[in-house]
Design brief:
CATH class of the domain at 22-32 and 60-202: Mainly Beta
Largest sheet: 4 strands, antiparallel
Number of strands: 32
CATH topology of the domain at 22-32 and 60-202: Lipocalin
Distance between the termini: 38 Å
Helix content: under 10%
Length: about 400
């Protein structure tokens, strides 16, 4: 009896541990940087309203809140400081705050975007890694908030939204695109010491974030820059391939989407393009598989469900769409004037789409059309930040506050 009871306890503990890990939000666009989350079960009946558990002021900025266990980590600006905050996930109570001086004046053309920060930190092995508006790179101890190492920023900064490239942890390094508007390098820092492990200086930073995945049997970091789509060896930084990705004022800002041995990308306002990456005659090539000029992209990122991709095009003041990722064929598009920007996540066949006006749209993945389930108002000010979906908890960052919403 005693052995059976112990075995049962171990099974429960293992299941609970797995659930805790699966619902953590540790970086930009989730565990695989694809906007897909696990650990959420759609209710049989969606409530008429979500339940607000707490709301706290945290400061300005568009960084996605990270959720790890019973803590929420927020990277924000308070006055002239960039701060990292740890909050109790159940109550919103502050556990620790660490900041550093980061006075910053936006370019006049970019002032409506706000003073940031706009890059989502990365959590790995008990540490947090961030990059601020002026390019300051910092490593924090997640338990205490202690600053472990820091690299100063450089001027001039990228013109429009400043640094918006969200870091990625890979093979004992944390990778950033540092530097100013017309220069700067992809840089891999040692996670423990901050020592530079490799750099690639082929172009200045764009405003989007990278992915890492296997292409042609080689693990590659694929990212957009000011005027290119590039692939580098994730372990060494060696340049493998590149191709032009030109947009007005060098404002490329969308994270590539991996689909098999291809990536789907957009230049700012340009057509949706699938690029197949392969190695031929001992050389890497990145060739166009298809283009869809009817669905230009601007800032909103997309999500896949099988071979169908869902997102929001900038056409007609914002239309949701479904696209066949194999052929590039448009399967459907919604009515126009939906939103200026949307932050999307998929949980199973449910998509959470947080629009920039504070409305959360819930719809089902479908090849047939825009299948809306519910719409919820979750903020009274603009919401340009990717929400953090953890279990049945939805953490929403607006201009200056963070709110926890739950399903009843």
């Amino acid at each position: 009896m005693r052995t059976t009871a112990i075995a049962a306890i171990l099974v429960v503990c293992a299941a609970t541990s797995g659930l805790a890990q699966s619902t953590d939000v540790t970086q930009w666009r989730g565990a695989n940087r694809d906007g897909v989350v696990t650990g959420f079960t759609a209710p049989a009946t969606w409530p008429e309203q979500l339940t607000q558990r707490w709301k706290v002021e945290v400061g300005s900025g568009y960084a996605t809140p990270l959720v790890v266990g019973n803590r929420v980590y927020v990277f924000a600006r308070q006055a002239d400081d960039e701060v990292m905050l740890a909050l109790d996930a159940a109550t919103g109570k502050q556990i620790w705050r660490t900041g550093y001086a980061a006075p910053f004046e936006m370019n006049s053309a970019a002032k409506p975007h706000g003073p940031g920060p706009k890059s989502t930190p990365a959590f790995s092995n008990g540490r947090l890694y961030s990059i601020g508006m002026t390019g300051t790179v910092t490593a924090f101890d997640a338990a205490s908030g202690k600053q472990l190492w820091q690299k100063p920023g450089t001027m001039p900064v990228p013109m429009y939204t400043s640094h918006a490239f969200s870091p990625i942890v890979e093979g004992g390094t944390v990778i950033f695109h540092v530097g100013g508007h017309d220069k700067g390098a992809l840089t891999a820092y040692d996670v423990n010491t901050g020592a530079v492990r490799w750099t690639w200086a082929g172009d200045g930073p764009g405003y989007g974030s990278p992915i890492v995945g296997a292409f042609g049997g080689v693990r590659q970091l694929v990212t957009i820059t000011q005027g290119k789509l590039v692939g580098v060896d994730a372990a060494t930084g060696a340049a493998l391939w590149e191709r032009p990705l030109v947009s007005p004022n060098f404002t490329n800002s969308i994270t590539p989407v991996k689909f098999g041995d291809s990536v789907i990308v957009w230049g700012h306002g340009g057509p949706m393009t699938a690029v197949t990456i392969a190695r031929r005659d001992n050389k890497w090539v990145a060739e166009t598989a298809w283009e869809n000029a009817d669905l230009p992209g601007r800032m909103s990122n997309s999500v896949l469900d099988g071979d169908v991709m869902f997102g929001l095009t900038s056409r007609n003041m914002g239309q949701y769409y479904g696209v066949d990722a194999k052929s590039g064929k448009t399967l459907w598009s919604s009515d126009p004037r939906q939103a200026g920007n949307v932050a999307m996540q998929r949980a199973g066949n449910t998509i959470f789409a947080l629009e920039n006006d504070g409305e959360l749209v819930i719809f089902r993945t479908s090849r047939a059309g825009f299948d809306v389930v519910k719409r919820y108002k979750v903020a009274d000010t603009d919401t340009w930040t990717q929400p953090a979906l953890s279990g049945n908890r939805i953490f929403v960052k607006d201009l200056s506050s963070l709110t926890l919403w739950t399903l009843n």
